[in-house]
Amino acid sequence: MDSTRVPRIAILGLHLEANAFAPPTVLEDFRRQCLERGAAISALARGGTSHLPMEIPGFYARMDATGPWEAVPLLIAAAPPGGPVAQVVFTGFMDEMQRGLAAALPLDGVYIASHGASSATGDEDSDGTIAAMVRRQVGPAVPVVCSHDLHCNVSEALVRAVDALVVYRTNPHVDMAARAAESADLLRAMLGGMRPHRAFIRLPLTPPSVTLLTAEGPYADLIHDAEVLMRDNPAVLNASVAGGFVFSDLPKCGMTVTITARDAATAEAAAHRLAHRAWAERERYRRPLTPLAEAVAHATAAGRGEAPPVLLADVADNPGGGGRGSTAYLLRALHKAGAQGVVLGVFIDPALAAEAQALGEGAAFEAVFNRVESEFSERFAAPARVLVLRDGRGVGRRGTMAGRRFDLGPSALLELAGSGLRVVVGSLRRQLHEPAMLELHDIDIGAARCVVVKSRGHFRAGFDEYFAGDRIIEVDAPGLTSPVLGNFAWKRLPRPVFPLDEDAVWAR
Ligand SMILES: [Zn+2]
């Protein structure tokens, strides 16, 4: 780099967690969440609350604080977790990013902020494809730093193409901005001439997401080890242990360890240390869920005042993992049991939300959930009343959504007649991980006896002020994101793989 010139850093990213069992993700899904280009990205990143992935403002803030630079933002596309992105959409993004990079040359660095578990209908390694394209465009000498969600499926192609990979270390994810800052620091060091080495190991281990929490458990211990490595050995620049996203159902699935270090030997040694511990403790990645009937019994006991309030997590229908947010197994069972003081959300049903909006607050009607049935989304009907109508827009106040805008689409709070069961119905597929999504509908969470969230784990950072870990029950119900991996017809996963296959082996 010419030292008299301000470094020019390109910024781009694709955020999608692709669930192979969900319908394809289309352009409209990106448009409704985040599809930003060029200078608009800089304005949003520096302008306070926005719908950008949190890495983007985090990266800008750190770069702005650490010296002069010129941001060259190209494209940030983010969609809710869903099926693989339609190939025509992915090709369009690729062309756009490639043309943007070519037009922006010469560049001094690139920051790729991607989720890391995307795939396209015609490309099983879309994240690797993007990274390889970036490398081709900028050449071997320009630093490329990439950050990923910890639910990422890392490919060899990606690790080859980038200089450093930085993966989240918290789940629920509250360190996006911190990891972006770490990426910025690595980029700054490379602008100063540092050239890191990487080591990479993939294990035949695909932990269910419910076992990947970082407050406690086997994954928390691994992350702690990674942080100790970084703290005690200055040659280790970054230690990333990615839990992976098994529902992508791809050969590249599995827990991965990627070390970025000042020398190759340090990188290799650190990667082996972490991988060996993960593999040695693989039995810890089994986790029993609570049967539906037992969970309902807890809810009814809480409703009768015989037990403290309880939170039921419908982990198998998590829109944050590609679920549709519209299974009715818990709703039906709680209704049948006459559970009192229950709030359930967010049930995704645009037709029902629209009908409630048309009827108006106070209207009584026959609420039909899932009038068009699909796999797991069976019809459920009950007399109901419209309590509250909203546009579904708000700003998060805690955990992963703090200070971030959300949009449920037109929404309604319904009360099922003759029961203590209230349901927040939304139009856009979003997981309930933020209390403001309920409070928007005038719900006092502290007064509820039972809260049912369609979320796998991120709700823990949002609802922790009401529910301690021992009052949270992960329910075993059918759904697209069930942690019971034996429930799925896997096609592309590497086999044997633990815990699906007892005979999985790893020898290195
Ligand atoms: Zn994640």
Fold blueprint:
Elements: E1 8-15, H1 27-33, E2 34-37, H2 39-45, H3 55-65, E3 70-78, H4 87-104, E4 109-113, H5 126-138, E5 144-148, H6 156-161, E6 164-167, H7 176-191, E7 197-202, H8 218-232, E8 236-242, E9 256-261, H9 264-280, E10 290-291, H10 292-303, E11 310-313, H11 329-337, E12 342-348, H12 350-359, E13 364-369, E14 380-390, E15 393-395, E16 405-407, E17 411-416, E18 421-426, H13 436-439, E19 450-453, H14 459-462, E20 472-476
Parallel strand pairs: 1-3, 1-4, 4-5, 5-6, 10-20, 11-19, 11-20, 12-18, 12-19
Antiparallel strand pairs: 2-3, 7-9, 8-9, 13-14, 14-17, 15-16, 17-18
Helix pairs in contact: 2-3, 3-7, 4-5, 8-9, 10-11
Zinc ion is lined by residues 149-151, 173.
Can you tell me about this structure?
The structure is a single chain. This protein starts with 7 loop residues before the first strand and ends in a 32-residue tail after the last strand. 29% of the residues lie in helices and 22% in strands. Strand 5 (144-148), helix 6 (156-161) and strand 6 (164-167) form a beta-alpha-beta unit. The protein is globular and about 70 Å long. The chain folds into 3 domains: 1-194, Rossmann fold, CATH 3.40.50.2300; 196-287 and 486-508, 2-Layer Sandwich (Alpha-Beta Plaits); 290-482, no CATH class. Helix 2 packs across helix 3, helix 3 (55-65) packs across helix 7 (176-191) and helix 8 (218-232) runs antiparallel to helix 9. The model has no long low-confidence stretch (mean pLDDT 96). It is built from 14 helices and 20 strands. By secondary structure, the protein is α/β, with parallel strands linked by helices. The strands form 4 sheets. It has a 9-stranded mixed sheet with strand order 10-20-11-19-12-18-17-14-13. A 6-stranded mixed sheet has the order 2-3-1-4-5-6, with helices on both faces. The longest helix has 18 residues, at 87-104. It binds zinc ion. Zinc ion binds at residues 149-151, 173.
